[in-house]
């Protein structure tokens, strides 16, 4: 899937890695926003998960 800026392969690489190491569902990963990540605290907040 080539793109004009060449980011598609790295985007998929990161998303599949995130799914693999967290056990997150694809819908949860796709709903993530920048505010859901706190790099200083090392926390990723998942909203609207299957069990709330």
From TrEMBL:
Q: What is this protein called?
A: Tyr recombinase domain-containing protein
Q: Does the keyword Membrane apply?
A: no
- State the organism of origin: Novosphingobium rhizovicinum
InterPro entries found in the cross-reference section: DNA_brk_join_enz, Integrase-like_cat_sf, Integrase_catalytic
- Please indicate if the UniProt record lists DNA-binding as a keyword: no
The entry's keywords: DNA recombination
Where does the record locate the signal sequence feature? none
Specify the Tyr recombinase domain's residue ranges. 1-52
Q: Which Gene3D superfamilies match?
A: Intergrase catalytic core (1.10.443.10)
């Amino acid at each position: 899937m080539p793109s004009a800026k060449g980011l598609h392969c790295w985007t998929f690489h990161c998303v599949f890695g995130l799914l693999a190491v967290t056990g997150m569902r694809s819908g949860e990963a796709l709903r993530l926003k920048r505010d859901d990540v706190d790099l200083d605290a090392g926390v990723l907040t998942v909203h609207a998960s299957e069990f709330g």
